[in-house]
User: Fold this.
Amino acid sequence: MKTMFHDDDSDDKSMDRAKLIVSIVPVILIIIILAITLIINGSKKEKAGEDDLQQSIMDYADGTVPAGSDSVQAGETDGEVKREPVEAKEDEGQMEQDEDSPETAASPDPSPTPYKQAMDPNQVDYSKVEFNKDEQLKEMMTYWADNNQKALDDLANLDRFKAMSWKLKGTKDCYYYGDKNGAGQPEGMGIAVYTDNQYYYGEWKNGVRSGKGTWIHYHIHGTENKNDVFLYHQYTGSWANDLPDGEGSEHYDFEMSLLKEHNVYYGNLIGSYAGGLVNGDFYLTTLDYKQEMKEWNGKADHGSWIYQNDNKDKSGRKPALVSTVDPDNYVWLSSKENKDIGVRCLISKQKN
Assistant:
């Protein structure tokens, strides 16, 4: 027969542990609650700081600053007043944006200047480089028909292709390869090279570009490029009388490392053209040195943007383009800047 016994010491120890747990649990819960509260408050403060900073950035883009202040500081959002844009500086056709200025798009005017490409000392003497224009244009035409942009870029940078373009220096003539009419004029599908490393592939009629086609201007330098932000400029669309005419689009490809701080550049223009000039409704994008893209809408009349309204800044500029996401954000241009806007640097006998 087993003897049952009761261990008083064991019961006492169990009670002590229970009391200890009861006393510790509330402390632990309090600590956890405090920690959670601190994390939440910290997140709220951090989020508030981010919101304030984002708001300041938006205010800067919209042209607003705190009353009595010359610049926007992060977190200062009360007492805002509408700020007028500051006049931008022009540098080789590009409009430099002042640090305190709202959105101002550059008017990209690619270099080197057409028709004035100079041979640099101690560089390749293209006058001594042999080339076969028909064979080279036939070769390039094949890649163009296949939409092989990489191959086109590689060919344009070969010495024999640069020499072919250089041979036309100082003229508006071209070397042509493709279909011809009974009079021996370019007509149908064909390809041409002009000076300044410019090429066209597409339709022709009566000896001039007419129909659908693509023009490209390669920015090729004889010495190390330290300033020209453009790699190439391209127009694709309708042509008439040797000029862009009808629906089309322009595209600029950039050397990103050379984009200048406080400058913004047109990246794409999609709309309609007349005689090589913008004419009609347009969708545009701009790019800054941080590679941030912004989108705009505009309407043009034979080379000039129709101003969005009659407002003026202190320099007399008016709002030419409007943001696609913010109806109060504009690209401001002066009357001097807002004229003869079209496919820049295009070589054509129809252009002065």
In short: Confidence is low (pLDDT under 50) at residues 1-8, 43-121. The first helix runs from residue 8 to 62.
